[in-house]
Amino acid sequence: MKICNETEIKKLFGDRKTPSETLYYMALCYYSALRVSEALQYDGSNIITGKGGHERFVYFSKEAEKYAADVNSKQLTRHAIYNRVYRASARALGYGISPHDLRRSRATVLYKKTHNISKIQMLLGHKDASTTFQYIIYEENDVEKTYRFCFSR
């Protein structure tokens, strides 16, 4: 499991060798925080039925919208998307990541910006906040940063 920071995300989406269709699915996994299976079934609506049959609101990103026109109507598999994302990230970043790593990266970036687990939980479609906490990857100095953020007012 690897987490991308915002600089790496820009690099990943800036790679001109990555096909638009792959960028579309990467954008859905990162910016909209969809699971691969949800991204494959996504039809542009604001509400999706996710894991466990739970409905949730989806925020369709401008990043994904850039590439939506180039999505082929043929049915791709989760495995095909995984391979595409892994190859694109290995080329752009020097190491491979999975579509789920993009989802975890989004959760981590948002948590570091907001420190609001309940909103991230809603975005990810988790029933329990403890699941959302498992998505967030902490660095060594994150606890100190949080302390300073909360008590420097």
TrEMBL record:
It comes from the Bacteria. This is Phage integrase. Keywords: DNA recombination, DNA-binding. One of its GO terms (molecular function) is DNA binding. The lineage of its organism: Bacteria, Bacillati, Candidatus Margulisiibacteriota, Candidatus Termititenacia, Candidatus Termititenacales. CDD domains: DNA_BRE_C. One of its GO terms (biological process) is DNA integration. Belongs to the 'phage' integrase family. Residues 1-148 form the Tyr recombinase domain. InterPro entries: DNA_brk_join_enz, Integrase-like_cat_sf, Integrase_catalytic, Tyrosine_recombinase_XerCD. Coiled coil: none annotated.
